[in-house]
Amino acid sequence: MSRVWSGGTIGYLLAAATLVALAPVPTASVPSFLPASPPSEDEGGVHSFGLNVVSGRRDGLALQDVRVSGGFRPGELVNCHLQNEASIVAYGDRVYVAYNDTRKCNDDLGLPGVRRSENGFARSTDGGRTFEDLGPIVSGSGPVEHLSGDPTLAVDTRGEDAGTVYYSSLAGGFVGGTAELIWEGVGVGVSRDGGGEFEWYPASGPDASRDKPWIAVDNSGGPYDGNVYVTWAHTGDPRSIRIVRSEDAGRTWSAPISLDPGDWTNGARPIVGPDGAVHVVWLRHAGFTELHAARSTDGGRTFSAPETVARFPDITDSGACPGYTSVNGKIRVYEMPSVAVDSHGSPDPASPDYNPDRGRLYVTWPAKGVQSGDATDVWLTSRDPSTGAWSTRLRVNDDQTDSDQLFPEVVVPGPGHVLVSWTDRRDDPANLMLRQYAAESGDGGASFGPSGPVSDLAFPPPYTFPNSDPFIAPCYAGDYNGLYAGEDGTVYAAWGDQRDDLVIQGPAGQRTIPDPNVYFRSFTGA
Fold first, then answer.
1. Residue 381: beta bridge partners?
2. How far apart are CA 507 and CA 461, in angstroms?
3. What is the pTM of this model?
4. Which of 84, 123, 405, 450 has a beta carbon 3.0–4.6 Å from 195's, enabling a disulfide?
């Protein structure tokens, strides 16, 4: 997550953000996706000081998307209202969602002795029909005292720690009783009680120049089963992708290994294959734009030399956001990857559940579109499990427009089946409104069926230039969404969504802005 941090800026913003939510805002009950049930009336939440959050209803439609993030609570600044960058996992009937959450921004104003958080967390115990917003989540006792966004989740599904939930985040610690940072790096929270409480541990060691951590668990049943891996981008000189591992359920962590040092790298994603091999894929700029990958077969102790996954043209820059590549609506974008692996079935041709695609690694990302003037499309490549060769990149979205496709994520809901979901603008001729779409392949990613909408409706982009949340950098609207496939083939999706209106009555009068929240839907593929 991108922050605005200078002391002068924060002092100004504190004076500007004086409207405080003194009472909780009731959240409209959103109909569940499983099963769908139409709303009886159009409900919303109204704040006595002029804050109105209209939740989950548009024109009397029977919506099935479920709002995950809740409203404001006593003491929270109304100006700090951002929830985005969702990560999602499921275990049994429990669904967990982590996301950026700036509602406790008043804790970030240099107050001594305050454990600080820009991280949200929500939990469902009924398969995603309803969610309990448990955030902004704050660490307990221990050296991790500041959670500063870019959250991701993983869950142990098979080992002796089955059901354990892992939560990675940018993090820091403070000198006791002061506001002075003593370390910055990556922290990992571990919950062994179904998301009720997290114990937080420093995973990276001190690394103030870090970005985009991501977490994965070995659920292969192999010799390294239960290992936990965390990657991040070290953005200092020299830049590199770094990875650490834990062999004791997150309590202690190895020294970091650096991958691909020297050039601009970011957006690393780790994943563990059914054979226990650890794959890491990341974005690299070095006079051209590529995705690179490395692989470990010894539980993350050593890695192969980086190999090129794909090379492609940059996203077409709108030029509206100095210092960032951006698309229409002043939204910054990167060609960062999402990864998934087929762990279904058996590799034995004689087995009744033989799956020739078992072990196939899939990578999706946004890059320059094929239409004239098309800033970005969604692309996919896969690694053949028998030869190790990467396929020719394939365009996933099927529209014939110049509209943007952003933030793709990929999962494998069944043997040989790969599903990609992304944020799409095809429904709006002005290329502005956003909607979640998906497409599925049943032939190991060789071709895709028609794209179809996942979310009920299109929603506007957030205000980003300047950002409507004054603590957040301009042009920032999140960098990823959440997608997870359960073992039964159910797909769980969570994404940043601005369908709700945030109406603030302040000193300069009333203004209405799109309110960035997190929404959810579950579904099954073909």
1. 363
2. 25
3. 0.89
4. 123
